[in-house]
Amino acid sequence: MAGAPGERGPGPAAGEQLQQQHVGCQVFPERLAQGKPQQGFLSSFFTNNQKCQLMLLQTLETSRSHPYVKLLLDAMKHSGCAVNKERHFSCEDCNGNVSGGFDASVSQIVLCQNNICNQAHMNRVVTHELIHAFDHCRAHVDWFTNVRHLACSEVRAANLSGDCSLLNEILRLHFGLKQHHQTCVRDRAIRSILAVRNISKEVAQKAVDEVFESCFNDHEPFGRIPHNKTYARYAHRDFQNRDRYYSNI
């Protein structure tokens, strides 16, 4: 999906708002027209919601265990889009097998409490969606009417979030192919587009092909492809040292 924490000026035009709401309601049925989830007072006591909230807290607060998220949170804050757990995340039931999304209309990351099955899964979903948030924070992304913009962010999210790590691909029984990482990134980007847009697979593939080279090689804010947690920790260290370097110039 799309959106970003932080203020970004006036909201979208009425026609674009309707399109955003239509897309959001297809995947996230608990989203209201005003952009707020339908959550009652007792919702936090239901098993899925409580588990989702606890896993999210673990992801956000255990930075050494989740260096991908730590780096992205720091990068968002550095870019003027500080993330607040209560404001910018929402655990909800979702349609289909979607694990999460980025709702641009209300600047929230939606975590699909009925589909996120364990802590490692939560870590990957939060990382993936924070990459979309970072993209929206640093650039004017037309998520709803320009499929190439969406494709670029999906390529980056698949490439940088660990979705296509060797371990994850082995668990999916996908491994051993030449340039397999690139193939995985391309395939997962196409799948993500099709999950949130009512377009043909051919249109999604064309959009990914058109932006793949430039977006695959855009590694911000990591500065490299973080193939595992060790690479992500190095990337976070370099990100912190980047500020010290520029301050001394």
TrEMBL record:
GO terms for cellular component: mitochondrion. Pfam families: Peptidase_M76. InterPro entries: Peptidase_M76_ATP23. One of its GO terms (biological process) is mitochondrial proton-transporting ATP synthase complex assembly. Keywords: Hydrolase, Metal-binding, Metalloprotease, Protease. GO terms for molecular function: metal ion binding; metalloendopeptidase activity. Its EC number is 3.4.24.-. It comes from the Eukaryota. It is an enzyme of class 3 (hydrolase). Belongs to the peptidase M76 family. This is Mitochondrial inner membrane protease ATP23.
